[in-house]
Structure formats: structure tokens, C-alpha cells
Specification:
By secondary structure, the protein is an alpha/beta fold. The protein is built from 11 helices and 8 strands.
């Protein structure tokens, strides 16, 4: 296991601006999704608050033209670089829309996985497939620190190590597996150290330093692309919000610990570093934030406008419609027509984002 120290601020200005935009987008998307859930427009969501650099640095460290991503439920809100269509589909997924699991054509991402740790064997298998076919590309998957206790984690890294598949595993060590602290999750020296059992290098990185994450990911990707096998990255960060919208972190997160990590906020940290280097100022920050907001408005508006045909639940269930499925489809059509024609009281207009706390996942404790 090796540690990666904080990277010096030696970065191309254009890349710096891109990374800053990625961080702002990840934070605002997470906040907006949190607010949409509170308005009853989305189902369960898992905020990314405080962990944006750990995801943005990894995504930008991969080759978006050839590489694959295998997400779980928290990291996907940091996938803004993959395009508006993917982000729109992500919001549609969290709406519970039947089309939500379909990844847009040309985007190399598997559907979001909410079953703990089960994305890891999928990622290993995908990487092995690329290797066997002689196709270019590296697979990147994310895992929470709690999921490293699952059998799927050990089975996946063992297979990946044996076959030296082109894989980067990014472990988000955010301090908590729901309410279970890291100290109760493992007796290992670190999560990166777990790679040793599978013959996989483990690298521990400051997950709140987007440049350190970027550098470590690039090195891991280069190693994988050269045929030298997978790398396990442990990105040390902190979950500054709830596990999901059904969680109450005030019951278990110590006030002093949270306050300590707030000072290390990855978005503010990178903005401050850029300002200190003369590569950023308030005007650029405001312009970047405005561009992110406009982009999100377009994406969210399209996602919420996607209508759901109740009969779509019966599509693709059987190869040929049966008498029973035709009867069910007719009954759904009858009920839908009945509901649409029935008079109803005017419902209250959904609250706008401005009527809710816009600090999203960071709002639960001021």
C-alpha cells in the first residue's frame, strides 16, 4: 500500500476550470436531487455532499472515449462529464420511470446498482471481457467503504488480480457505512491494504484533493492499460450529509468531527487553491456556477417532463402477448382513462427549488 500526498497546484488552466466546473456540477446536482426528493418528485436519493472531489477526480482521470464505468448509487451524481443525456437518464431513474435503467447510446456506463457490492463482479467481468477480446479501454468502478466487507468485493478483486484485468476500483472511504463508523467496519490498516490479499496494489489518497485523486487515477489507469492489472484506490473523504434521505445523521455523527471535515470542503478547497494561484477569481466562479445552474435547469426540466405510460409495465414481459396480458393492458387503459376524466380538486403547486433549502445534503446541521 502506498499513500499519495496532496498534489501541488501544477495544472493546466483549462483543466483547472474543467475540474472546478465538475465539482460545482456534482454538488448542485446532488443538492437539486435532494430537494426534488423532498418535493415528492424523486424516490430515495444518496447525496454526494463532501465527496465530490473523490468522484470528479477519478472520472476525469479516465479516458472517456474508451473506458467503462460501473457505478453504485452514490457516485453516479459525479458523472457530469459523461453528458447531459446520461444525467437526464439518471434523474429519470430516480423518478422511478420505467425507462430510467436504459443508458443512452454511446455512453459506456452500466446501470446504477443499489445492491451492496454487486457491481464489483460485474466490473471485473467487463474488464476481463475487454481483455479477452483485445479491445481498448479500462473499467472503473466505485465502492463504498462498507461494501468492502461484502463477499462480492473479495471475490471480485481476487478474480481481477489472478487475471490482471484492466480495472480501477475506487473505494469511497467517507467515514460511515450508514451509521457504522470506519473503526467498526474493518480491523485492516486501511481499505487500500485489502488489495494485498489479491495481489493488487493499494493506493491511499486524500479524497478531498481533486488533483491528488486525478493523478492517482491516471497512474492506475496507465498501469491497467499497459496490462499490469488492477489497482485499488482508497479515497479518504467524508460524508457531510445523510446516507440517504431516510437517514438522520444527527443521531450518530459527532459535532466536532463534522466541523473538522467541513473545513476541508473539497469544492471550497479547490476554489481557494485556484484563487491563491491567480487562476481563479470571484467573477470566474460566479460564471461557472451560473453555467452549471443553467445546464441543470435544462436537464431537470426534460427529465421531469418525461411522461409515464402505465401500460409500459407490461412491455417486454413476454415475447408474445398472451390473453391475460392483453386483458391487463385493456384494464390499465380503462383505469387511466377513468382517472383522467374524473374531476378533482386543484392540487397545490409543487414547491420551487427556491422554496426549499438549497444547501442540499449539507443542510442537516448548520
Amino acid at each position: 500500500m502506498t499513500d499519495v500526498e496532496t498534489a501541488p497546484l501544477l495544472v493546466d488552466p483549462a483543466l483547472a476550470a474543467t475540474l472546478m466546473s465538475d465539482l460545482l456540477f456534482a454538488r448542485r446536482l446532488s443538492e437539486r436531487m435532494w430537494n426534488l426528493q423532498r418535493q415528492g418528485r424523486l424516490t430515495t436519493v444518496a447525496p454526494l455532499a463532501g465527496q465530490e472531489a473523490a468522484v470528479a477526480g477519478v472520472v476525469r482521470g479516465m479516458d472517456l472515449a474508451t473506458d467503462w464505468f460501473v457505478p453504485y448509487y452514490r457516485d453516479a451524481t459525479g458523472y457530469g462529464p459523461l453528458g447531459d443525456d446520461f444525467v437526464e437518464q439518471l434523474i429519470v431513474y430516480w423518478r422511478g420511470h420505467p425507462e430510467g435503467g436504459r443508458v443512452p447510446d454511446g455512453v459506456r456506463v452500466l446501470p446504477v446498482q443499489i445492491s451492496l457490492g454487486t457491481q464489483l463482479p460485474h466490473a471485473t467481468g467487463l474488464a476481463w471481457g475487454l481483455q479477452l477480446r483485445g479491445e481498448p479501454g479500462v473499467v472503473c468502478t466505485f465502492v463504498g467503504d462498507g461494501a468492502t466487507s461484502e463477499g462480492d468485493f473479495y471475490e471480485a478483486i481476487n478474480l481481477a488480480g489472478v487475471h490482471r484485468v484492466p480495472l480501477v476500483i475506487a473505494c469511497l472511504n467517507n467515514g460511515w457505512a450508514i451509521s457504522t463508523p470506519t473503526s467498526s467496519q474493518t480491523a485492516a490498516e486501511s481499505f487500500a491494504a485489502k488489495g494485498a490479499a489479491a495481489g493488487i496494489p493499494g493506493v491511499r489518497v486524500d479524497g478531498n484533493d481533486v488533483l491528488a485523486v486525478l493523478d492517482a487515477t491516471r497512474a492506475a489507469r496507465s498501469r491497467a492499460a499497459a496490462g499490469d492489472g488492477p489497482t485499488l484506490l482508497e479515497l479518504v473523504t467524508y460524508r457531510m450529509g445523510a446516507h440517504t434521505n431516510s437517514d438522520d445523521p444527527t443521531r450518530y455523527v459527532p459535532d466536532d468531527q463534522l466541523a473538522e471535515w467541513r473545513v476541508r470542503d473539497p469544492v471550497e478547497r479547490f476554489a481557494s487553491e485556484l484563487r491563491g494561484s491567480g487562476r481563479w477569481d470571484d467573477a470566474r466562479h460566479e460564471a461557472a456556477a451560473a453555467a452549471v445552474e443553467a445546464r441543470l435547469e435544462r436537464i431537470i426540466e426534460r427529465a421531469l417532463a418525461r411522461e409515464v405510460d402505465p401500460a409500459a409495465a407490461l412491455d417486454h414481459v413476454v415475447a408474445e402477448p398472451s390473453a391475460r396480458s392483453r386483458t391487463q393492458r385493456a384494464e390499465l387503459a380503462r383505469r387511466s382513462a377513468s382517472r383522467s376524466s374524473a374531476p378533482s380538486a386543484s392540487p397545490a403547486s409543487p414547491a420551487s427549488p427556491d422554496e426549499h433549502d438549497e444547501s442540499g445534503g449539507l443542510s442537516w446541521r448548520a
